[in-house]
Amino acid sequence: MSLVGRLSTAATEKQDAWMFYGPCGIGKTSLAAAFPKVAFITDGFDDGINDLRRHGLIPDGVQVLKHTDGSDRTLQSYEDLISVTKQIAEEPGLEKHIEWVCFDNLSGVQEHIWSNRVRTVGKYNNSRDKFLEYGNGPEAAQQDVREWTQLLDAVCRRGIGVILLAHSTIKKDKNPIGDSFDKIVPLIHEKTYEAIRQWCPNIGYIGQEVEIHKEGMQQKAATTDFRTIRLTPIPAVDAKNRHSIAESVMMGSSGQEAFRNLKAAKLAAKKKG
C-alpha cells in the first residue's frame, strides 16, 4: 500500500493513564482504590493497599492481583513485571472484570528493572555499585522502562486504564538560565521518570496546602487539612494533564470524594473548551 493510502485522520481509541505522586500517607492509594473496577498490582515492597483493606479504609470489592505462588506480592521479579503487564494487555475478556489497573508503586517497579540488569548484564558483574557508576546503569535501564511503557500503552489501547503511584522526594533542580532551586519529584531515578513522563499523559502531585504566617520579621509555614491534586506545573512541582484541568483538585476527606472531584474537574474542563 502507498503512503497516501496509509494516511489517516481518525483518532486511535484508548483508555486514559494517570500517575500520582506525593508523600507517604497523603492518600494516593485511597484515590486509586476509588477508580471503578480497579485491580492493584503490588510491587513486592509496598503493602499499602492491603493495609487499607485490613482497616476498612477503601471500598469493598477493590481487587489485588495475587502472585502465582498465591501471595499478595504480585511482582517479585522483572520477569513478573513483564509477564503480568503482557497478560493484562492480551488476555481475552479481561476488560469485563477490570476497568483500571494500578501499579503500586514505581520505586518497586524500578527496583525489579534495575535488579534484572545487575544480574544479567555481564559488565556489572552482579554489582549494584558498578551498575550505578557514573549513572551508566540507570541510563541503560531506561530502555527497559520504555519497553514496559509500551506494554502499558497496549493495556490502554485494549480499553483498560493505567494508574501509576509513586512516593515523592525533594531534589535540587538545575536551572540553565538562573539559580538552581528545590523541586518535589517522584522518588525514582531521573532516567526512569523521564521515560515514564514521556509516556504518561496525566501526572498529578498530591500534597497538603500550606499557609504562611508572619511572626515578627520571620515567615513561618504551617500545613492545613486541605489536600489537593496539582495537575499543572509550577517551578517547585512537576505536573501535567491532557484534559486542560487548570485548577488544583480538592481531595476532600476520602479517596471516593477525591475521585469524584477529579472526575468533575475533568468534565468541567471539557465543557469549558
Account of the protein in words:
The radius of gyration is 20 Å and the shape is globular. The mean pLDDT is 90. A hairpin with a 2-residue loop joins strand 7 (202-215) and strand 8 (218-230). Strands 1, 2, 3, 4, 5, 6, 7, 8 and 9 form a 9-stranded mixed β-sheet that branches. The protein has 273 residues and is of the alpha/beta class. It has helices at 3-6, 28-33, 48-54, 78-90, 106-120, 128-132, 136-157, 190-199, 255-272; strands at 17-22, 38-42, 63-64, 100-104, 161-173, 181-186, 202-215, 218-230, 249-250.
Q: What profile does the largest beta sheet have?
A: 9 strands, mixed
Taking the alpha carbons of the first and last residues, their distance comes to 38 Å
Shape: globular
Number of strands: 9
Helix content: 25-40%
Layout of helices and strands, plus pairs?
Elements: H1 3-6, E1 17-22, H2 28-33, E2 38-42, H3 48-54, E3 63-64, H4 78-90, E4 100-104, H5 106-120, H6 128-132, H7 136-157, E5 161-173, E6 181-186, H8 190-199, E7 202-215, E8 218-230, E9 249-250, H9 255-272
Parallel strand pairs: 1-5, 1-7, 2-3, 2-4, 4-5
Antiparallel strand pairs: 5-6, 7-8, 8-9
Helix pairs in contact: 4-7, 5-7, 7-8
